[in-house]
Amino acid sequence: xxxxFSFLFGTRExxxxxFVAGILIFGIVAFVLEKRTHKxxxxxxxxxxxxxxxxx
Length: 56
What we know:
Keywords: Membrane, Transmembrane, Transmembrane helix. By secondary structure, the chain is mainly alpha-helical. It has helices at about 1-10, 10-40. Helix 1 crosses helix 2.
C-alpha cells in the first residue's frame, strides 16, 4: 500500500493519474446533478405573447 501512495503522490505519472481521475469524477458528478436539475425544472417552452415576468 505504501508503494501505491508513493506512486500517486511521488511521481509525475501518479499526479497525472490523480488529475485525470479528479476531472472524470467531477464530470460524472456534474452530469448526475444536471440530470436531477433538468427533472426538477422542466422546460416550459417559449413564452407566449402577453406572458409577463418580473423583469418586463
